[in-house]
Amino acid sequence: MADLATQLIVFTDLDGSLLDHDTYSWEAASAWLSRLKRLQIPIVITTSKTAAEVTPLQQMLGLSDMPFIAENGALVSLPGWSSHADYPRKIFNADYPQICRLLHNLRDKQRFAFRGFSDMSDEEVADVTGLDLAGAALARCREASEPIQWRGDAVSLAAFRLCLRQHQLELTQGGRFYHVMGCGISKGNAVNWLKIQYEGQQQKKWVAIGLGDGPNDVSMLQACRYAVVIKGQASQNVQLPDDFNGEQFWTGASGPAGWSEGLNYFLRELII
Fold it and tell me: Mind listing the GO molecular function terms for this protein (predicted)?
């Protein structure tokens, strides 16, 4: 099984998974982080956060040379892959300025009632998200998606969705905000794209383990051979499709302790 270790790749959500939801500590996962890094197993952060938010977290976690997936799969950052055609990052849809221009035009012409991060200052984003000012500034450094606060009714929301689809964009609902991004964008599609890039580089198949705690992690988990659903505030709403042909494990612990529990379960099964 030693060869399998060189082919293993880990995709992980951050908040409530690798990081504690409240304290952002990863202490309970530190032993497994060290072991995976020692075995040179890629650990790919897969998150709704922006690249600007992920980069300092990568540095703190000791993962600065690893690719990561940001903005719910709208982009993949490729640090250390300078020879790759998409270096330094792959954006899967229209870029942020294009998305914002379209949204502002639709709002002006159709009178849709919403407010996006591009309409807000750092102070306003901090107020609606609970982030500090520095964190709000990083959250506003967007490249491929726009969070919005919807202020209209259900009928106008349906009309808004239709207008977006006519421009190859779609609306997904998060915890506090709706997110506007390209049609077909998901964490899972980004995971599949990145696995293909790894296979192209090393000419072998990669076995993927995914770890997440919420509904927006389902596509990521579905794209992996082994899926770890970490106990959390929204984990009861996680449901993998009936046609998921991998293996799944639901943890009893939450946050980084659950992250380690999931790896213990599957990596022990793989005898790594």
Answer: magnesium ion binding; mannosyl-3-phosphoglycerate phosphatase activity
Write the CATH number for 104. Answer: 3.30.980.20
Per-residue pLDDT tens over the stretch 81-138: 888 888 889 999 889 999 999 999 999 999 999 999 999 999 999 999 989 999 999 9
- CA 211 – CA 214 distance, rounded (Å): 10
**What angle in degrees, to the nearest 10, is found between the helix axes of 96-110 and 154-166?**
130
191 and 75 in a single domain? The answer is yes
Catalytic residue chosen out of the listed positions 3, 13, 20, 122: 13
Q: Determine the distance from the C-alpha atom of residue 222 to the mean position of all C-alpha atoms in its chain, rounded to a whole number.
A: 13
Note whether 155 and 198 are same-domain residues: no
Whole-model pTM over 0.85? yes
Q: Which domain holds residue 143?
A: 96-182
Active site residue 13: yes
- What is the model's pLDDT at position 4? 53
